[in-house]
Amino acid sequence: MNADLIKIKERFLNIMKNTEGIIGAWNFGSAAREMSDEYSDADIVFLISGNKFKHIQDNLESLVSQVCDDILLCFEEEFNGESIINNGYLIKNDENVFQFDVFLLNNNKKNDFMCKIHYTDISENDILFDPKGYVKELCENCPKGSFWNSNVNQLFKRYLYHFYMSAKYLVRKDYFKLNYIMKTLFETHASLLLTLYDSIKWGGEGKKLNFIPEDKQQHLKKYFCSEDFNVNKANLLAGIEYFKADIEAEALNICTSYRTDNMDKIKMYWLNITKDI
Question: At 27, is the secondary structure helix, strand, or coil?
Fold first, then answer.
């Protein structure tokens, strides 16, 4: 984390620590995973006494404004409500602009689904302050993360179905529908790789994909739609070969619907339809 942002974070913690109704705080995001670098943002979860939750929410912007020169933007997550608030701030301090994410978690509703996500796998090392032991209690009873686990048979069918569909959009040169199809193929192939190789129990797809083998990461870089449809055709052909190789290498024992002959027949038909591209 940037040295100036660290100082801002420390000042903000001191303010919040002395604000009535705030009963604890812990690191979230990269800081909690010991993966911060100079580009990392600040992610802090504050545990709020139930009767003070609305008051802290209403005064949060004022509290943030005390540690920066200007608040340029506040992005409020759609799931914000009576259980949890996640506000992402872009704050200016001197000549720098920083991302400063603040989470308010209602202690009276800590068992709500969205709240649990924000203290899954929390450890005592993540605690920033906890004068009465409320956060330690969360640590002792926190939910545990899980590895990615998709239905590989469904992934195989989804991939082939959408690969087949891509042919008509290539021929029509329909960029936007092809872009949608390629995003679906990316998500499907990513789910296959995560089901096979996921090694971390925290984070979403974007985070987890960084931890699959690097050679497999390369397999996912063919699914981004270009304005050049010849490039798209070449990328789709490379993508299906990678997808086939990944199933055959690791998933034949769990992908009972896999049939290489059906895959090859669909690919040959696809090549015939797109031969003029």
Answer: strand
Q: In this predicted model, what pLDDT tens digit does every residue of 7-38 receive, in sequence order?
A: 999 999 999 999 999 999 999 887 667 677 88
Q: What fold, for 3-140? A: Beta Polymerase; domain 2 (3.30.460)
The size of the chain, in residues, is 277
Domain-wise residue ranges, the chain: 3-140, 152-273
Cα 140–Cα 148–Cα 86 angle in degrees, nearest 5: 60
User: Six-digit token pair at 242?
Assistant: 């990678």
- The 3-state DSSP class for residue 93 equals strand
Q: Which two tokens stand for residue 123?
A: 């450890």
What top-level class would CATH report for the domain 152-273?
A: mainly alpha
Which of 180, 179, 178, 185 lies closest to 161 in space, CA to CA? 185
Output the CA torsion sign for 22, 23, 28, 34: positive
Q: Please, how many CA atoms are within 13 Å of residue 156, restricted to the half-sphere of its CB?
A: 19
Q: Which of 157, 242, 147 is nearest to 196 (CA)?
A: 147
| pTM for this predicted structure | 0.85
Helix ranges restricted to H, 2-52 = 3-17
β-strands 96-106, 70-76: how paired? unpaired
